[in-house]
């Protein structure tokens, strides 16, 4: 007994020691919620501001917003040691109908410091998939323009150079040339939005701001008299939209 008892105690102590170490090393998983807000050069916009000509873009064009909806996808968390957690998700933010302005992915992530980013639109692999919900929302792109889905539909009216109201359709898709049976794609026009580093210690709400005015501003000063409709088959316009979109999104409030 004198030999067996010490061995038993050592084994028991070792078990508890290992259990405590494992508990200490456990990193809790938490939920992340992304809240999408919209403004015009810092003036908050909701769908109650739609359908009235009350905005002026950087070119001096007076305009209204009648519809605004867009897709974000592939939310990515990159740790300080370059470990990457990419969530294969997408969300159709529909400002017009006030839906999906808040999005909580099902997958939880470990707490930690992360650089947080997402894709505006859908990358080429995702864009080739079939999404029943996007189909039902008539978010498709015609096959003659490469198929897949819109990245954004932004519609409204503006006062043209003849002082008349005219419609515009600022629709963002994959840039395409040679519409028809064999379209070609001069460059990718989805883009990564980098929100910067966020310390995630608990369930967290992350605000993503879209400054709608930026779509008309930088680096391409947008004249709605020149670019208003039939922009989907216009690869030059699509590449300009891609360039202007780089400054549209920013990180807002973070709460946890």
Describe this structure in words.
It is a single chain. With 256 residues, this protein is α+β, with helices and mostly antiparallel strands. The protein has one domain. 16% of the residues lie in helices and 38% in strands. The strands form four sheets. Strands 6, 7, 10, 11, 12 and 13 form a six-stranded antiparallel sheet that branches. Strands 2, 3, 8, 14 and 15 form a five-stranded mixed sheet that branches. A hairpin with a 5-residue loop joins strand 11 and strand 12. It is globular, with a radius of gyration of 24 Å. The N terminus is likely disordered. This is Copper-binding protein MbnP-like domain-containing protein. Pfam families: MbnP.
Quaternary status: single chain
Q: Hey, roughly how much beta strand do the residues contain?
A: 35-45%
> Which residue ranges are poorly predicted, with pLDDT under 50 across at least 5 consecutive positions?
1-24
What's the overall average pLDDT, rounded? 92
* Sheet of most strands: 6 strands, antiparallel
What is the straight-line distance between the termini?
55 Å
Shape: globular
Domain Copper-binding protein MbnP-like: 32-222
InterPro entries: MbnP-like_dom
Protein name: Copper-binding protein MbnP-like domain-containing protein
Supply the key terms:
15 strands; 16% helix; alpha+beta; 5-stranded mixed beta sheet; single chain; 256 residues; globular; 6-stranded antiparallel beta sheet; 4 helices; disordered N terminus
């Amino acid at each position: 007994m004198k030999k067996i008892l010490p061995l038993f105690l050592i084994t028991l102590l070792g078990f508890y020691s290992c259990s405590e170490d494992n508990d200490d090393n456990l990193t809790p998983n938490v939920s992340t919620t992304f809240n999408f807000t919209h403004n015009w050069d810092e003036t908050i916009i909701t769908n109650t501001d739609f359908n009235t000509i009350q905005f002026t873009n950087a070119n001096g064009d007076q305009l209204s917003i009648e519809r605004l909806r867009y897709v974000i996808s592939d939310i990515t968390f990159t740790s300080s040691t370059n470990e990457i957690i990419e969530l294969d998700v997408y969300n159709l933010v529909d400002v017009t109908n006030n839906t999906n302005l808040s999005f909580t992915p099902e997958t939880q992530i470990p707490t930690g410091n992360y650089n947080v980013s997402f894709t505006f639109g859908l990358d080429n692999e995702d864009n080739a998939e079939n999404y029943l919900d996007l189909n039902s929302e008539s978010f498709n792109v015609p096959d003659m323009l490469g198929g897949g889905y819109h990245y954004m539909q932004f519609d409204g009216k503006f006062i043209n150079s003849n002082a008349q109201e005219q419609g515009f359709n600022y629709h963002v898709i994959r840039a395409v040339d040679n519409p028809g049976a064999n379209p070609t794609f001069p460059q990718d026009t989805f883009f990564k939005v980098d929100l910067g580093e966020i310390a995630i210690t608990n369930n967290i709400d992350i605000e993503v701001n879209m400054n709608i005015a930026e779509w008309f501003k930088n680096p391409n000063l947008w004249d709605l008299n020149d670019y208003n409709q039939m922009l989907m088959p216009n690869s030059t316009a699509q590449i300009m939209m891609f360039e202007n979109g780089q400054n549209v999104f920013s990180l807002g409030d973070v709460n946890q």
